[in-house]
């Protein structure tokens, strides 16, 4: 084969590779990059299309600061709860000696539940833990326990956090399971040969290795909850003052209609979730380096 033929084949292969990537690139530009640039530009424009910083200054009003505060609290609480429960569930699946069919069932369910959100999830929780939900009625009629008499309210901070944890826990399981699988048996055997107890192995060997994966996944769960709107809006309507609902009210509402302020709210969400995802990627790279 001549050099010119090799060059032609190489160029064709490169062209084929770019053709394969083109649909994804087009999709990313149309539905991710272009809308983001539009939001960023709109955040610094007024209704007449003139440059202004009023929208950015509007982010520091008490009402919007309060919405960011409650969103951060819900995201942190659901991410912490999801990470904690999901880690121990994944540990039981990977290292707990459960039958293989249980692991397959849990991983399959986690793949489905991690994407179960919005109106269906809100309806499921209302039908289960609402004032006339199935579990609420069973506890009241069969066991004489009035759940709502204890102060529990599904349409509250705790209720929304609990709802978010439904998809946070399986997401944690899906992401942390490969990290637990990456723990080498030789590390534990070496620790035991040196006289380390199970507690010492986990605190001095396993957890330090898993820490980047755990922290990175926690940040991903935080970003996942911070940007969620469909579940919160379907469950609580516009009464719960979180940032996505405030953004929706500014862009689509009749009373608080100020699209450019909505763009500024979206810009703030992009910054927060973007930083969380960047730190997650960095942590994941560190974790993969440790487990090679």
Order of helices and strands: HHHHHHHHHHHH
Rg value: 24 Å
Largest sheet, described in full? none
Structural class: mainly alpha
Oligomer: single chain
Find the count of extended strands (DSSP E, 2+ residues): 0
The dominant shape is: globular
User: How many domains, in number, for the residues?
Assistant: 2
Helix content: over 70%
Q: Per CATH, what is the topology of the largest domain?
A: MetI-like fold
Query: Which CATH first-tier class of the largest domain would you pick?
Result: Mainly Alpha
Known CATH architecture of the largest domain: Orthogonal Bundle
Alpha-carbon distance between the two ends = 39 Å
Low-confidence stretches: none
Share of β-strand residues: under 5%
Please tally the helical runs, counting DSSP H or I stretches of 4 or more residues: 12
Give the rounded overall mean pLDDT: 85
CATH superfamily of the largest domain: MetI-like
Family: Belongs to the binding-protein-dependent transport system permease family. CysTW subfamily.
Organism: Gellertiella hungarica
Keywords: Cell membrane, Membrane, Transmembrane, Transmembrane helix, Transport
Membrane topology: Multi-pass membrane protein
Task: Detail the topology: elements first, then pairings.
Elements: H1 3-43, H2 54-58, H3 62-95, H4 100-113, H5 119-129, H6 134-143, H7 157-181, H8 185-193, H9 198-226, H10 230-236, H11 243-252, H12 259-290
Helix pairs in contact: 1-12, 3-7, 3-9, 4-7, 5-10, 7-9, 8-9, 9-12, 11-12
Pfam family, one: BPD_transp_1
Transmembrane segments: 20-40, 74-94, 106-130, 205-230, 261-283
Keywords: Cell membrane, Membrane, Transmembrane, Transmembrane helix, Transport
